[in-house]
Amino acid sequence: MKQKLVEVILQAVTMSTDTGVSLPSYEEDQGSKLIRKAKEAPFVPIGMAGFAAIVAYGLYKLKSRGNTKMSLHLIHMRVAAQGFVVGAMTIGMGYSMYREFWAKPKP
Prior knowledge:
- The chain is mainly α.
- 72% of the residues lie in helices and 0% in strands.
- The protein has one domain.
- α3 (43-60) runs antiparallel to α4.
């Protein structure tokens, strides 16, 4: 009885870790997956690039902030970066809705 239970558990463990199953999504490399996702939602990479650009600009301007406190400078940069991302997401949703509801060819 105990031996049978151990065999069943071992069989379940080996079945759950079987990597011989090949799915199409796992055959795709990172570059082609990124390109496919960017085509599906084009404003996500734009939002990420804008966020990175604002952060880089904020770091560049950190030395020449003048008499402004560090915390105030960082808050302004955070608000600008978040605003850009939210704006890109809003425009992306509008574009997605347009593509799905208005630009969709009628059957």
